[in-house]
Structure formats: structure tokens, C-alpha cells
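Subject: design request, 133 residues
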């Protein structure tokens, strides 16, 4: 059952919810997974920073980063997308794009906004599925 859910395409409702949500949980997984991710149950094993990248470069970096995380069996990672303060209109374009890109990846089980800190303001924590192709 969970395998079917993990490989299903996102519905239009899921895609619309991603834009405004502060978290994502793959359908069919228990809410405790997201709660544990928010609470920092798993240590961040790798991170990447998208500051200074345009949307195309950011997409390529996310693809590279997730492939590397898979290769090294990393399960909990952080992607810093920034708050968008340097963008025209001070809008966090990469924030919405990053959430949308990640929700479409079968490897991403859950994501949530990372707690603000000196080094991770405007970031997402991700829980990745083990052994995803």
C-alpha cells in the first residue's frame, strides 16, 4: 500500500496546497513522520545552499544534491532556499519552486520549514526514502 502511494502522481489539490503549506507529507504516511521531522528527531546529514542561484541553476543543484544524498545513503537533509530578500519584489520565488520540485520527487517522503537560525534562515528539512532509484 505505501509503495503505491509513494509512486503516485500528485493531484492538482496537492500541487495547490504545496504553494501555501509550510510542510509536505507523502500521502499515506503517518503524521508522526512530519512531527518527528519538525522536532529534529533525525540529524541533518547533508545540506546545500541555493543563495545566488537563478531558478534553472537551483533546479540543477537540487537534482545534483539529491542524487549525491542518495548515493551516500543520506536520509535527512536541508536545502537553504533563502527568504527572497534579494529577489525583485522581495518575493521568495525559490521557496515555492523548491517546494514544488521536491513534492514531485518520489525520494522525498516529507519536508518542513527548518527552524530559523543564523545559518539556516529560509530553509527546508527533508526526509528522504532509502534506496530510491
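Subject: RE: design request

Done. Sequence follows.
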Amino acid at each position: 500500500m505505501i509503495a503505491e502511494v509513494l509512486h503516485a502522481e500528485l493531484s492538482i489539490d496537492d500541487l495547490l496546497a504545496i504553494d501555501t503549506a509550510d510542510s509536505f507529507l507523502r500521502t499515506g504516511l503517518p503524521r508522526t513522520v512530519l512531527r518527528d521531522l519538525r522536532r529534529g528527531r533525525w540529524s541533518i546529514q547533508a545540506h546545500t545552499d541555493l543563495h545566488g542561484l537563478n531558478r534553472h541553476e537551483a533546479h540543477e543543484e537540487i537534482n545534483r544534491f539529491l542524487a549525491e544524498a542518495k548515493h551516500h545513503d543520506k536520509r535527512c537533509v536541508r536545502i537553504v532556499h533563502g527568504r527572497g530578500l534579494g529577489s525583485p519584489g522581495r518575493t521568495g520565488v525559490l521557496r515555492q519552486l523548491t517546494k514544488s520540485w521536491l513534492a514531485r520527487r518520489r525520494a522525498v517522503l516529507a519536508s518542513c520549514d527548518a527552524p530559523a537560525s543564523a545559518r539556516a534562515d529560509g530553509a527546508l528539512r527533508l526526509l528522504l526514502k532509502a534506496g530510491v532509484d
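The longest strand covers residues 108-113.
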